[in-house]
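An instance follows:
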Amino acid sequence: MNNEAPIIRVFIVDDHAVVRRGLASYLSGEDGIDVIGQAENGRQALDELAILVHAGTPPSVVLMDLLMPEMDGIETTKAVTDRWPELRVIAVTSFLEEEKISAALDAGASGYLLKDADADDVLAAIRNVAAGKMVLQPEVATTMIAASRRPNPAADLTGRERDVIVLVAKGYTNQQIATRLSVTERTARTHVSNILAKLGLTSRTQAAMWAVQHRLLSPAGSEPNDNASP
């Protein structure tokens, strides 16, 4: 039996050639990592990714700079995750502002790293995201938790709303929430809107961080109760 872990294919998007080459050089020397392509802007990235996906060799993880000419990283991330939902994107940037973090995660990024992150942290993030996990650098998580605080953080959510916010925190889309809870997608969308209004939040990312902060996710990561009242 072959117990070797699958190769993690990495695609790098950054408008600075030195950054791209530096990342590629470092990652290529690590076991289980294969840098399969690079792009200097979002439009080029979409073209190159389309070729790789069509060839049956899509990347496992895309490292995405946010500030680029022609098509920025947030717009590109949304385009990538909309077109190829199976691709995982990590935003790699120098911005620590809550608005940038929220925008990147709302666009579909599975991770957010600062450009001053240690090389080992970048490698660990790639491995974790490839394994299906969400990765936020500690400073990023702290920023998001602080932004999620509101005057009335203990708003009275119904049992069903608690189920929904837990699924939001796990990265479920409205369609996936609807399937999981056996409701229509419209009902799921309404629940999410009601939750944001009750908590005074503006995005699904803030809702996810609120759920983490208020420990609505169990340590074992158990699923919501299907019998909760609507």
